[in-house]
């Protein structure tokens, strides 16, 4: 799982080093162990399947998958926020929100950009960017409001995914109805 976490980081699937290190730490803390606390998890694998899952679907990976499923709520929250403000431009409304160019928050990535002298919109901004230069270019092109996406730390979703994995179990298997009691 440590190698998998490192690979996910190298290929950009885990965007932050803290996220990858958290998965690695969980893999070391729970090496093939599926915790059982009284009646928890609510959706336990069968005794037969648990042995197989320890090898091919370790608990750290269950936490990662549960965290990703939990993180899928974020686009719905963006949509609700944008709908409440009357600014539902699809699909942008699923990935971020609009702010005044004069008051762009510090911990966001710009989704509106100027590249090769032309305005473009990106859904998954690059981490390395000259933010001040982009803001200057956007002002020069007459932008008053821009779309941004917050820099949400996945490690917070992993905390929720950990709690979800302990309480509910392997949600992916539960969703597909497999390997239950």
Structure overview:
- With 181 residues, the protein is mainly α.
- It folds into 2 domains: 2-72 and 156-175, no CATH class; 73-150, no CATH class.
- Helix content is 50%, strand content 12%.
- The chain has helices at 2-10, 17-29, 47-56, 59-71, 73-84, 92-95, 131-140, 154-167, 171-175, and strands at 97-100, 108-110, 112-115, 118-121, 145-150.
- The strands form 2 sheets. Strands 1-5-2 form a 3-stranded antiparallel β-sheet.
- A hairpin with a 2-residue loop joins strand 3 and strand 4 (118-121).
- Helix 1 packs antiparallel against helix 2 (17-29).
- The longest helix has 14 residues, at 154-167.
- The model has no long low-confidence stretch (mean pLDDT 83).
Outline:
It contains nine helices and five strands; from the N terminus they run ααααααββββαβαα.
List keywords for this structure.
single chain, 181 residues, mainly alpha, 2 domains, two-stranded antiparallel sheet, 5 strands, 50% helix, 12% strand
Number of helices: 9
- Sequence stretches where pLDDT stays below 50 over 5 or more residues: none
Q: Which sequence of strands runs across the widest sheet?
A: 1-5-2
Helix content: 40-55%
Which helices and strands appear, and what pairs or packs with what?
Elements: H1 2-10, H2 17-29, H3 47-56, H4 59-71, H5 73-84, H6 92-95, E1 97-100, E2 108-110, E3 112-115, E4 118-121, H7 131-140, E5 145-150, H8 154-167, H9 171-175
Antiparallel strand pairs: 1-5, 2-5, 3-4
Helix pairs in contact: 1-2, 2-4, 4-8
